[in-house]
Amino acid sequence: MLATACPVSVAPMMDWTDRHCRYFLRQVAPPVRLYTEMITTAALLHGDRERLLACHPSEHPLAMQLGGSEPRELARCAGFAAQAGYNEVNLNVGCPSDRVQSGRFGACLMLEPDRVADCVRAMREVVSIPVTVKCRTGVDERDSYSALVAFVAALAEAGVERVIVHARKAWLQGLSPKQNRQVPPLQYARVYRLKRDFPALKVEINGGIGTVAAVAEHLQQVDGVMLGRAAYHDPWLLVTALGSLMQPAPALPRTRHEVVQAMLVYVEQELQRGTRLHQITRHMHGLFQGRPGARAWRRYLSEQAHRGGAGPEVLEGALGRVPEPG
Ligand SMILES: Cc1cc2nc3c(=O)[nH]c(=O)nc-3n(C[C@H](O)[C@H](O)[C@H](O)COP(=O)(O)O)c2cc1C
Question: Residue 287's domain is classified under what CATH number?
Answer without folding.
Answer: 1.20.120.1460
